[in-house]
Amino acid sequence: MEDKLRCATREELMSHVLTQRRLIRHLHRRVVELEREVSLVSRSSPPRRSGATALSVGLRKIGRVLQAHASGALHLPQEFVAEFLYIQKELAAAASGEAPTPSSGRPAASPPEEGSSVPRRFSPPGSLIQRTQQRLSVIQRDETP
């Protein structure tokens, strides 16, 4: 992928950037939908929190939901569980400042050179990419007049 991006034309790079932005917007919407599905949004929480506090609160809430599911107190569709686990792993890595480990055992997309300060980048699981692309195509079809 890195080689493709290096050799890409300006139009291809712009297309890639736009696709990534759509993916990010879609994933953000999906996180909000998941929060609503399992009633994670608390109306009593203060409206403004620092990013670190909100991140740790979000991690704790996701952890509680997953524990409730594991104990049988709450039933979640398997898709929600998989996405919550993925989100939890990514948020935990972001909170600790570490790069996440690849979920499927694949090597990093851009392995760092010795002594390099550039963080490693990992691609999301293929199943998440496929589901997101399918949802994006449905959303685009719905938005076109």
Number of distinct beta strands = 0
Largest sheet: none
Structural class: mainly alpha
Give the rounded overall mean pLDDT.
70
Percent strand: under 5%
Q: How many DSSP H or I helices?
A: 5
Name the helix and strand elements from N-terminus to C-terminus, one letter apiece.
Answer: HHHHH
Spans where pLDDT lies below 50 across 5 or more residues: 40-44, 102-121
State the end-to-end CA separation.
34 Å
Radius of gyration (Å): 18 Å
Overall shape: it is globular
Task: Give the helix proportion (percent range).
Answer: 55-70%
Region (Disordered): 95-145
Quick recap:
The protein is an all-alpha fold and 145 residues long. It has helices at residues 2-7, 10-37, 51-71, 78-96, 126-143.
Write a structural description.
The chain is mostly helical and 145 residues long. It has a domain at 50-104 and 124-145. 63% of the residues lie in helices and 0% in strands. It contains 5 helices and no strands. It is globular and about 50 Å long. Residues 95-145 are annotated as: Disordered.
Layout of secondary structure:
Elements: H1 2-7, H2 10-37, H3 51-71, H4 78-96, H5 126-143
Helix pairs in contact: 2-5, 3-4
Region (Disordered): 95-145
What keyword list fits this structure?
145 residues, mainly alpha, 5 helices
